[in-house]
Amino acid sequence: MTPTTNLFVSLFSLSLLQVIQTLQSTTPTTLDWTALNKTLGGRLYTARPFASPCFPDFDGLSVPRIEANCEVIEDNYFNATFRSTQFGSFMTTQWESCMSTDSQCTLDSSDPSDFLAWTDLPCDQGSVAPYYIDVQNYTDVQIALNFSSNTGVPLSIKNSGHDYFGRSSMVGSLALWVMILRHINVYSQLSFNASFVPDGGSESYPAMTIGAGVPWADAYAFADSNNVTIVGGYAETVGASGGWVMGGGHSVLSPVLGLGIDRVLEFKLVTPDGEYRTANAYTNPDLFWALRGGGGGTFGVVLESTSVVEPGAMTLQVASLSFDPTSETGIQFIQLLTENSLQWAQQGWGGHFTINGLILVNPLLTLEEAQSSMQNATEFIQSQNGTVTIETLPSWYEFYVKYVISYQSTVGLEATLASRLIPSSLFETEDGRNTFVQAIADMPAAAQDILTITAVAPFLFNATANSTSATPAWRDSVWHVSFLFYREFLSLRKTKSLLSRPQIIIPKPLISIAPDSGAYMNEANVYEPNYEQAFWGENYPQLLAIKEKYDPSGLLGCWRCVGWTGVNDTRSQCYLPLN
Ligand SMILES: Cc1cc2nc3c(=O)[nH]c(=O)nc-3n(C[C@H](O)[C@H](O)[C@H](O)COP(=O)(O)OP(=O)(O)OC[C@H]3O[C@@H](n4cnc5c(N)ncnc54)[C@H](O)[C@@H]3O)c2cc1C
Ligand SMILES: *[C@@H]1O[C@H](CO)[C@@H](O)[C@H](O)[C@H]1NC(C)=O
Ligand SMILES: *[C@@H]1O[C@H](CO)[C@@H](O)[C@H](O)[C@H]1NC(C)=O
Ligand SMILES: *[C@@H]1O[C@H](CO)[C@@H](O)[C@H](O)[C@H]1NC(C)=O
Ligand SMILES: *[C@@H]1O[C@H](CO)[C@@H](O)[C@H](O)[C@H]1NC(C)=O
Ligand SMILES: *[C@@H]1O[C@H](CO)[C@@H](O)[C@H](O)[C@H]1NC(C)=O
Ligand SMILES: *[C@@H]1O[C@H](CO)[C@@H](O)[C@H](O)[C@H]1NC(C)=O
Ligand SMILES: *[C@@H]1O[C@H](CO)[C@@H](O)[C@H](O)[C@H]1NC(C)=O
Ligand SMILES: *[C@@H]1O[C@H](CO)[C@@H](O)[C@H](O)[C@H]1NC(C)=O
Ligand SMILES: *[C@@H]1O[C@H](CO)[C@@H](O)[C@H](O)[C@H]1NC(C)=O
Ligand SMILES: *[C@@H]1O[C@H](CO)[C@@H](O)[C@H](O)[C@H]1NC(C)=O
Ligand SMILES: *[C@@H]1O[C@H](CO)[C@@H](O)[C@H](O)[C@H]1NC(C)=O
User: Fold this and answer.
1) Is-contact 554 298, C-beta < 8 A?
2) Does 540 fall in a domain?
3) Mutate which of 6, 13, 17 for ligand 2 pocket (most atoms within 8 A of beta carbon)
4) Which Gene3D superfamilies does the entry mention (predicted)?
5) Are 229 and 395 in contact (CB under 8 A)?
6) Beta strands at 57-58 and 276-280: parallel, antiparallel or unpaired
């Protein structure tokens, strides 16, 4: 084959979208970037991966290591609060890298001070956007959308960088970093209104308005200081108005009080056509529905969200039980959980179970009721010489400080997840319960150890029919079961290559437990089969129609987001192919 035919072959193998993108993109010159920076008042920045100061080279050129900065990075490699302040950091580190080209700049996660991670190993840009804008208001977003549509430079939207699919990271993109707002003055991004009325509506609600960059840590402190309770995630640094709320947003209070998507009253956002819009039940209701479960990063750039809050501090019963299981008693404990969880859900408990214990909260019961409800679990744990605490805490904030902060998922590692929503019908029959227990018992111990069962489905919450677009499977589920796999750096030299990482840990057994159910889009597997069905169920066609209405040219796009055109979308080029 001559070079010419080769070119044609490769051209024709591009998807239509890619051809259009190739034709459109006129790579911007330095002058274009300078002009953009000027339009933005100087708030355009260049970016490098988080650990780049530790390396003596960048992109094939030698550069001096910045020892002092590197030490701070090593010391804070697993510190989510620190990472959230760094544009070039992603909580799950493979999203700092471009996996398909093995271009990376990460430290050794088994020992961040291990100099072998940077000695003779290159530091490359990976999938970190080379440019980002520190977004201060909707004008910045409009400028960026216009720039992208003129130049073909793809856009990415980053908040905290927690996304497990790497959807807040994108190779070669111009990034909109909405989080920087917080560092200016977080309290200007938070407000409480005792009688908030959504634009166009008439009913009022006690509500908090939260700017795009605000993490839960600040939202919880603000709610507490205003004597209200807001329903949010189990992490200090996850954003309250970003991917969490648009993708579903679960909380240990969700069994009684609903998911994030159930409690949001209004979004303010810029849609890809450049319009700054309000979306709520009265104004742009189709967009509002799509944002309530359709996921972040695709329908527009959210500047703030407003969610209903509960008046007052909330008295909570807390059960914290743990023991040291053997392979046998661990499975016995799982069996006990399957036998008791339906009743616990009916009583309003929410929280986390693992093979060696549980932490649950309940806003409905008294302490005596909580103790009696937990009787079966207490007896079992005590028979195993484990520890049992059942106590009353006066507020969500006290629960957060005492239990949540110390129990957050680890960041700074490569991680892969898998998720399944487990319907109530499974718990109703002995056969159903046995199916679950057997599936777990059949897994290797290493998988059992990373099992997290969360009681976070909105089991008692009375949702309005079709008010949200996440999979309806949430509505009759009791559990969201997940496995969180961390890749271990046993031998750095041998395993640093991303190409050799075990990519697919698809839990076929997990799917077969509840084949007709779904998965939580924010905590699912990157390669979830039939993801449209799993994440959105029957809502997908309508979500796609709304995406096409507000973003007809596909200006925004991300991996397995609504409207994703597939692995050949150039924006997805860093993801490893599934083989
Ligand atoms: C340690 C940890 C703990 C977690 N705990 C929970 C939990 O308790 N409950 C739960 O439900 N989930 C939890 N998650 C999952 C979490 O919901 C997702 O990671 C979510 O995507 C994070 O959203 P973010 O905006 O903070 O992160 P990012 O990674 O910055 O963004 C996530 C996605 O939303 C988009 N996005 C972000 N901001 C905007 C915006 N302003 N406008 C438009 N699009 C935007 C991004 O483009 C990306 O697609 C946890 C994750 C981690 C890593
Ligand atoms: C992506 O491109 C490859 C190679 O050109 C092609 O074989 C494949 O079918 C495409 N996949 C999709 C989902 O379009
Ligand atoms: C944008 O302008 C500011 C102020 O002039 C400057 O500090 C910054 O480095 C510029 N950004 C880029 C990417 O050149
Ligand atoms: C994590 O980083 C934050 C922000 O830099 C810092 O305030 C905090 O002390 C760090 N935590 C630890 C345990 O080092
Ligand atoms: C957005 O912020 C920029 C810079 O501070 C300012 O020039 C502009 O007027 C602001 N736009 C709006 C709509 O507030
Ligand atoms: C959009 O881009 C065009 C072409 O560069 C420019 O003339 C126009 O002023 C831009 N509009 C906005 C709102 O930035
Ligand atoms: C609260 O909301 C109401 C109704 O939307 C509005 O009139 C009022 O100004 C708001 N109060 C504050 C303090 O923002
Ligand atoms: C659900 O609501 C959306 C948004 O209002 C609407 O487009 C869709 O048709 C509704 N679906 C059903 C099944 O009623
Ligand atoms: C907090 O709110 C609750 C419920 O509205 C109220 O009963 C209580 O008095 C308030 N506490 C304070 C300190 O204002
Ligand atoms: C204890 O578990 C049994 C089933 O094993 C159940 O019938 C009973 O209701 C449970 N007791 C409590 C207090 O939950
Ligand atoms: C619990 O502790 C008692 C007293 O030390 C001991 O006899 C018993 O074997 C222990 N049980 C388990 C399950 O470890
Ligand atoms: C749901 O509605 C039922 C019937 O109106 C009511 O008894 C129950 O308290 C509601 N549940 C919640 C959690 O609000």
Assistant:
1) no
2) no
3) 13
4) 3.30.465.10
5) yes
6) unpaired
Query: The tokens of 402 are what?
Result: 């005492």
Cα(517) to centroid(ligand 7), Å: 41
Cβ of 338 less than 6 Å from ligand 4: no
Cβ of residue 79 lying under 6 Å from some atom of ligand 4: yes
For 516, counting Cβ atoms within 10 Å of its Cβ (0-12 exposed, 13-18 middle, 19+ buried), the class is exposed
What is the C-alpha to C-alpha distance for residues 233 and 222, in angstroms, rounded to an integer?
15
Distance 102 CA to ligand 9 centre (A): 55
**From the CA atom positions of the chain, what is the Rg in Å?**
24
Residue 256 Cα: closest atom of ligand 12: 13
Alpha helices in 364-461 (DSSP H): 367-373, 375-383, 396-399, 424-428, 430-441, 445-449
Q: Taking Cα atoms as reference points, which of 158, 228, 218 lies closest to residue 186?
A: 218
Q: How far apart are CA 92 and CA 250, in angstroms?
A: 19
Give mean pLDDT in consecutive 10-residue pieces for the chain, a chain of 579 residues.
Answer: 28 36 64 96 96 96 96 97 96 92 89 89 94 94 97 97 97 92 68 98 98 95 98 96 98 98 98 98 98 98 97 98 97 98 98 97 98 98 98 98 91 88 97 96 87 97 97 98 72 49 61 94 91 97 98 97 95 84
List CB contacts of 449: < 8 A, sequence separation 6 or more.
355
Classify the phi-psi angles of 409: left when phi > 0, otherwise alpha if psi is within -120 to 50, otherwise beta. beta
| Domain containing residue 472 | 316-531
Question: Is 565 domain-assigned?
Answer: no
Distance 88 CA to ligand 6 centre (A): 28
Same domain, 15 and 134: yes
Ligand 6, pocket residues at CB < 6 Å: 142-143, 146, 150
Lookup result for tokens 């179970």: 353
- Among 232, 155, 245, CA closest to 521: 245
Last residue within a domain, chosen from 253, 281, 312? 312
Q: What are phi and psi of 366, to 5 degrees?
A: -85, 170
